[in-house]
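Box 3.1 — From sequence to structure: Free methionine-R-sulfoxide reductase
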Amino acid sequence: MTAPQKRLGAQELVAAVASVVANEPDMIADMANIAAMIFEALPDLNWAGFYIWKEGQLVLGPFQGRMACTRIAYGKGVCGTVARERRTIIVPDVHAFPGHIACDAASASEIVVPVIAGDRLLGVLDVDSPVRERFSDTDRIMLEKIVDLLVRAIPVGTA
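Predicted structure (token representation):
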């Protein structure tokens, strides 16, 4: 049995992330804490984490949740599509998304946010839920703010 998740409002979670990343310039450390904070704070999630852009593909980074796909090709699935299009995508029903990669069969909806510094793709933030239509525009705005805080915490040229 899992512990009940604490529910934080969007502003509260963004403020907590800002505090955690404020004095930590290491991208991996920040990603690890952000994944944990999102997973603990938001209800109805089964996965929250990052894929890091390496050598033309997305490679599994810090996350919370069940085992995940290790590598995702550019343009494939929701994460690869976000990497290619460099825009956030909310998928209300992953089974209706053409080419969806089912890392966890329990996932029903997903939101993926690109992590971009300047014009450089660093990776994506991927959040999954076993609940259909779990993610809203409010979630998109909140997660994009969190990604912006991550990017601003990383010194230029070190990511």
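Summary of the box: The chain is about 35% helix and 25% strand.
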